[in-house]
Amino acid sequence: MAFGTCYYNHNSGWCFAAPVLCMAAGGHAPNGPALHFPGQGIYDQIILPELIIKRNAFLSLFIVGMGGACMYVLSAFWITEMQQFYGADAYSLARKLTPFGFAYVIGASVGSMAIDLSHGRIREILLISSAIAVAGIGALASIGPNSPARSIGLSVLASLGIGALYIPPIVGLVDVSADERLGTVVGLAVAVRFIVGQIGYTVFYHIVNKKLNDTIPATVGRAVVLAGLPLIEVQPFIEALLYRNTTALAGLHGITPKILLTAQTALNECFVQSFKLSYFAGIGFAGAALVASLFFKNIREYMVRRVAVDIH
Known about the structure:
By secondary structure, this protein is mainly alpha-helical. The chain has eleven helices and two strands. Helix 3 runs antiparallel to helix 7 and helix 5 packs antiparallel against helix 11.
């Protein structure tokens, strides 16, 4: 109930990921046609073991997955927290949310471009990106309803790092993969990103939801009782407040502007304490990407400017 507003529908990720993983593991999708490549016949080789033992492929998939989980920290949880703090003014809320989207695009674009400009020094690029993501996500734990500028700035910082973990590893994966397997490899990377992202979202959701359900009744209930609300009205008042049901609030007896202000302040504090845990959990995923980046091998030897297929 407490976290009902933070449902983030991303079921398409599961629908897309399952057949792609099956194709990567066995060469064909369940109940689907086998993969054909010109001049190769039916491709029945197993791709996953090759990706695990060959070059940077496994690390690329791992880092892409961590980036997918980190993305949910902002795209689901940070946005929900901002809606709680500033949702009354839709225009003002939109202005606060827009910069992090542009930062993500900039991070992905600059990170991908840096692979070429640095002649394949992807390890350093991923290390810097991971460090930025760790710093940005961790610092978001300090935001609150009275710090909009800090919230925007830290979301931009985190998005720059996450964007550079979301796309550049796939670029590096493409560079080290055989031409005839590019489609399957890229599809596999996207599938891994969706699946690990779903796992990360599930972890974040349960952490935050449990904390909210533990703190809201006690914190908000105590505050409104001290402000003068009758005990019998506390539970329906909290439910109406969470769902922003103005009709139900108007039907309750003893509601005063002082009680509403007190309740909103206490509710915001509950959100701050609960969503802080999702940022701490996000540090774990970004930190895992940072550690994996240490073992990455630069890909200069594979950047030969060869065109696999010339399309006229």
